[in-house]
UniProtKB/TrEMBL annotation:
Annotated gene: menG
Pfam families: Ubie_methyltran
GO molecular-function terms, A-Z: demethylmenaquinone methyltransferase activity
Protein name, UniProt field: Demethylmenaquinone methyltransferase
Annotated GO biological process: menaquinone biosynthetic process; methylation
Amino acid sequence: MSEEVKPYNGEDSGKKEQVTKMFDTISGEYDGLNRMISLGLDQKWRDNVVKMIAAHKPQVIMDIATGTGDLVIKMAQQTDAKRLIGLDISSGMLEVGKVKVKEENLDSRIEMVLGDSENLQFEDNSIDAVTVSYGVRNFEDLEKGLGEILRVLKPGGILVVLETSVPTKFPFKQGYYFYSGIIVPTLGKLFSKDKIAYGYLSESASKFPYGERFNNILKKVGFKEVENELQFHGASTIYKAVKA
């Protein structure tokens, strides 16, 4: 189980409430800062997720922790899915995403939904594919959230997760800790409305049970055919799992 890291440690509210508050606050600046901090690599990694999903030929796709909708928009453009759902706990992020979906003329296929990943309001066995891009580390209860994803997936349905991880080889490991531990929080303090948010995002990334530990959590929850692919020497990892 991952160590719980919350954005605002001085507050008594739970992680879920704090994460919602944080993303509502930074929603207007999130896309620009994210591109800058990731050096644009996050877009390439999302493209790799889309390729995995497209190969499965799903008709109904749910993107959990969709944020401002980058991934769900890419999947609408690059797959033949008839229905796509972008779900997020932050209404602020969703409002930005709705504008982007409309600008791309995809509002007839993409539904942006306010919802909780740990209490999905969807029927059992109703979704062909689920994606989560940089969102599972924000789950308050990781196993519960993954269990909900397993529940709504159809048998044979696929889950693809893109999440931060830590490189293991020199000099990428040392470079990662310097960049994520010093550069990212500094950029956040300089350019973000929420001076704490990007420190939290860096810390939560470093504490997330990446690699084989996350593979084992997926298996424990009930997923099969679990595998992962490192992105940029392990700065992020894509996990793929199937509902039996």
